[in-house]
Amino acid sequence: MEDKTENSIDELLMWIVSVDRRLVLMETMKGHTVVKASDIAHETNRSTQNISRALHELEEKGLIKCLTPEKTTWKKFVLTDIGKEILKKLDGTYF
Length: 95
Hints:
Arc Repressor Mutant, subunit A
């Protein structure tokens, strides 16, 4: 069972690294507990749409969770436990 989890983590790592916006988002989350698309976009000089797409992708994979799902704008996100584990593996290797 541990092998399957490790394979899943490796697959998620490669999935994140394969698209720049996902990697940029994970790197930015390293310094924040709660994030909003507009804040990350401003910090990284990327469009809010680009970051929003990355947030949506990471949420679908269970790496982040929306704290304010009832809102249509200004949503706030946090890393899940698996997201924190992935971030630890990315840190030092990819950023």
